[in-house]
Every structure is written in C-alpha cells, then in structure tokens.
Amino acid sequence: MVRLRAGFLVLAALAYLSFVVGRWTATLFSLGFLWAAAIGIVVALLLALAASRLDRVAYLIIAGVVMLFGAFSAYDFARGPIDFSQGTATVLALVAALFLGAAFWDFANLLREFRAWAESRH
C-alpha cells in the first residue's frame, strides 16, 4: 500500500509538470488544446526516461531545478490569472515545491527498489 501511494505521488507530479509545460509551450506558439496535451505527454515520457537514467548528483540538481520551476509556475499563476495576495501565492508555491520534492524522493526510492528487485531476479 505504501508503494501504491508513492506511485500516485509520482504520477500526480508528472501530470502537473506535463500540464504546465504543455500549456506554456502551446500558449507560446499559439497552439490548441490537443497540441498542449500531446506536448505534455511527450514531456512526461522524456522526463521519466531521463530521470531514471541519471546519477545521484545530476538527479538532485534536476530535481531542484524542477522544484523551482514548479514553485514559480504556481506562484505566477496564483498572482496573475487568479489574483491571489502575495502571501497566499507564496504559500501555494511552497506547497508545489514540497509536493514536487516529495515526488522526486519517492521516484528515487521506487527506482532503487525496482533495480534491487531486478538484480535479485538474475
């Protein structure tokens, strides 16, 4: 049950990042909703593949950058279109950063457990 929770957290973080990147890219190039969805799916696949192949230091650096990007996106959205106060937007940005950090931590643990399981099968 614990692994199931970790999988959902990673999936939710991947969906959040894919949505943000797909929406921003489609908006930047004046593309429609289906293009945004396609870009989001490609980003999700590439991010999962790249994150599973990195060493520890590179993984931590990329996790930090993605956490900052997610926090900035949440803050920017809360301040811009929603027009929340600066304090509320900051709290939402911190929640997004903590959420993404927890997802990266869970993903690293899932990879470690999967690799140990795969090595024990040989």
Brief synopsis:
Keywords: Membrane, Transmembrane, Transmembrane helix. The chain is mainly alpha-helical.
Task: Write up what this structure looks like.
The protein is mostly helical and 122 residues long. Helix content is 88%, strand content 0%. It is built from four helices and no strands. It has helices at 2-28, 33-53, 56-79, 86-120. The longest helix is centred in the last third of the chain and has 35 residues, at 86-120. The protein is globular, with a radius of gyration of 16 Å. It starts with a helix and ends with a helix.
For the structure shown, list the relevant keywords.
88% helix, single chain, mainly alpha, transmembrane helix, 122 residues, transmembrane, 4 helices, membrane
Relative strand content = under 5%
Shape: globular
Oligomer kind: single chain
SSE succession: HHHH
Largest sheet: none
In helices, the fraction of residues equals: over 70%
Mean pLDDT: 82
Taking Cα atoms only, what radius of gyration do you get, to the nearest Å? 16 Å
- Total strands: 0
Class by alpha and beta content: mainly alpha
- Cα distance spanning the termini: 26 Å
Number of alpha- plus pi-helical segments: 4
What low-confidence regions span 5 or more consecutive residues with pLDDT below 50?
none
Secondary-structure map:
Layout: H1 2-28, H2 33-53, H3 56-79, H4 86-120
Helix pairs in contact: 1-2, 1-4, 3-4
